[in-house]
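On clarity, I found the account of how folds are encoded harder to follow than it need be. An entry of this sort, consisting of the sequence and the corresponding backbone structure tokens, reads as follows:
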Amino acid sequence: MSLFPGWRAAFRIARRDALRAKGRSALVVAMIALPVLGVTAADLTYRSALPTAAEELTADLGAADALFVDQGMGPVPLWQMPDGIMWQTPDGAPETFYDDERKPVDVPATFPKGSRSLTEQSVPASVTTRHGITDTQITELAVADPMLRGRVELTEGSYPKAKDEIAATGAFLKAAGLSVGDRVTVRGPQQEYTLTGAVELPAELKNESLFAVPGAVIAPWQKTADGDGKILPPQASGVKWLVQGPPGAGVTWPDILAANEKGVVVRARQVALDPPPDSEVPMAVYAQGWTGSDTELTAAVLTVAAMALLEIVLLAGPAFAVGARRSRRQLGLVGSCGGTRGQVRAVVLAGGAVLGGVGAVVGVGAGFGLTVLFRPMIEEFSGRRFGELTVHPGEILAIAVLGLVTGVLAALAPAIVAGRQSVLESLTGRRGSRRSSRVLPVVGTVVLAVGVALAVYGGLSGNTRLVAGGSVLAELGLLGCIPVIVGFLGRLGRRLPLTPRIALRDAARNRGRTAPAVAAVMAAVAGSVAIATYTASTTAEQAYDHRPNLTAGTAALMTADTAEKTDLSRARAAVEQHYPVSGAPARVGRAWAGSDCSVYYEEEDGCGTLEIVKPTGEGHSCPLKGKGAKELALRISADEHKRLMNSPACVDEDSTTIAFGNDDNKIVIGDTALLTSYVKLDDPEAAKALAAGTPVLLNSAYAKDGEITLRARHVYNERDKENRALHPGEPRTTTDRLKVYVAPDSYATTPGIRMVLPQKTADRLGLHSQETGSVHTLTREPTGAEQQAADAALEQAGNQAYVWTGSPAEQDDDAVVLLILALFAGVVTLGAAAITTGLSKADAEADLTTLSAVGAPPGVRRSLSGFQCLVVALTGVLLGTAAGIVPAVALRLTDLREALKVMRDDPMESAYTPIVMPWPTIALLALVVPVLAGLLAAALTGSRQKLARRAG
């Protein structure tokens, strides 16, 4: 005999009711299964993508037992942790430096007897591609050896075995436009290699590099350098040894300690996986407390899980409420047969358990299936292969239980309502008249006010926990106010046409169905708007503080070959041929006095200098520097601070942008083409002055009475024979007063240029000068292929020329984040609105039948469904936007507090902390999504209704 006869009957009734109302049941199952699916897939992906200790070791060692590394400290004792990552010199050891000459360590002598080893060494190199040339890294490693399996895997072709063969990662082949069988040339030794295969690093799928056998690249490079003394190989990384220990023994902790005595650090597989006790690790006492804390991550995960649970309950709850009303006659029969109120509640709760259990099973199964299906895509996105699909049964079971509990919780409120109904109301179908709660809106308003106050206070005090708690309270308070807001909607339709008026009144009359759906939309939109607002605000702050190193839409061609006379015409032709440029280039040059210490690295007394002497006094000295600067910075507004920072007196105080020379005087030799194309100063008077030999000063703070003071220190060192011959005599310092054309203050922020100096004026002043490059106007940003082609052409032109473009503030990632957030909130909004519309249709069949009976056109059903969906979506989006602003503003107040601290220490640092609304995201949610929801609901609703016999 069953111990729970009442529950057994309740589950039987619930199961049969679910099968009888298949549409409603499928709706509830879908609502519970979707979040369970998402959480299951996220858990499986996270656990699988997060490498285990064994997988990390395989990524470093392949199939080898250990990696031996000489740290360059010489044969001195070292201490290390068992993982081989942390190490240090023992207490009392003599201080060492990497550039000290030390006796080399015989690393192979530290290997266990009977071991086998492979050497690994990397070198940066420039190689040819299908488009031109590119920089990459070449690793000399016998990748064909079985010891490398798991670290380097062949995907196409064969491993390199000869010294004229090389392998490339798939990412490199894609970027370079090459394929297996092509040939590449390593610039420097100009040695060609055949691409025999494509490989991948399972732990670094986006790695762009090449692999050659030991001795194939570095040795020929060094030999070429020794032969003519001109081509020097780049600095190669130190040699590493992958070691396979004696069979059955591997590399043990005693082997590691012995290697540490010789100055070698070892990362061994079996020791890292099974470390010795701390008593045997000399460094263990210093490593205590170095573990990180994931408290914030755990809190964030719990918050997301709680919000997901709340949304499921809010969305599924009305479905159970409608189901309970649809089954009220059945529940009334239970009561008439002697069933207690508790047994009536048990029937509804059992329905939640049944549908919740089915939803949990379906969601977990679908989560597994989708993870397996999209695994390759996820691996490419994350940049690493999964070692295996990692399943934690306890976590999967907890997710399933969460789905089951969610179903029960969603049915809790309808069960309580069903238990309170009298048998007569249930059997006759009358709903009765119930007044809305007057206490809930008052409590909601108070909680909303308290939550906002707490969040703002937390932001001002820098307490992020108060911000989070206050934001949650504010959202809960707004939830309590939703029934009143929904009720108010009914009054807005008095002057509207028939269908929107009915939709608004239906939403207000059935608040138990409408309010939870609006709340679910609000919860999803609030989180998305909060993150989007904060992201848009920080992006605006970064753009505000960004200092470009070149004028927007330009590219600079510069040469590093200052030791010899260079011909830049071929380099300019290469840029014009391969870069998307327009118009003629503007030539630029640099000027200096004495010996150029950017070329000759000598003592300070052997260097010349050239500078514009900045006058003192008001208008010349930056008010954000010196006495009273801190008080001024805290007193003025952010806009005023920005104006001062961009003023001529302050703009150079914190800017280290050097675009056209190797010193910071920012004096550039140029002509009118430079003014119009780069400076964007289209002024006939400035062009006329420059042509007449008058310098154009872009920063007025350096001028006084229309003149500048130019100080040149003519000092020469012994190595600078050429310039010394041009200016013989004793070292001297000259000071010249030059009349200049002063540009408007707005041009003081021009990157890299303080003054444009005519060539003939530089010659008249006895300055050394040299043409260093040109500035080109871009029509768009160049592609990777265009850059590779241009680099190859520049290499052919010689003179070590290079091209670089400006660095705009990064916003692409933020735009993607905002788009994802908008899509997420939009999907939830569409789902909630669709569910509510479906419930409205199921709950209002009698009203729809009455409309048809009184002669309403068939299209009324469609338009009514569309407007019902629109009401829910639009109301939820607007409330969610208001709720999402609260945490975003509070967090920005926290950022403002931190920025003010920084400003107190350095008045030159801006405390600008804007709050920027993500209007594109809000417009998408507030306009596009509700309208789309309404149109979809109208399109999917049938315009014809079958005749039904009137009940009762």
User: Anything to note?
Assistant: Residues 227-231, 289-304 have pLDDT under 50 and may be disordered. The chain is about 50% helix and 15% strand. Residues 581 and 778 are 4 Å apart (CA to CA).
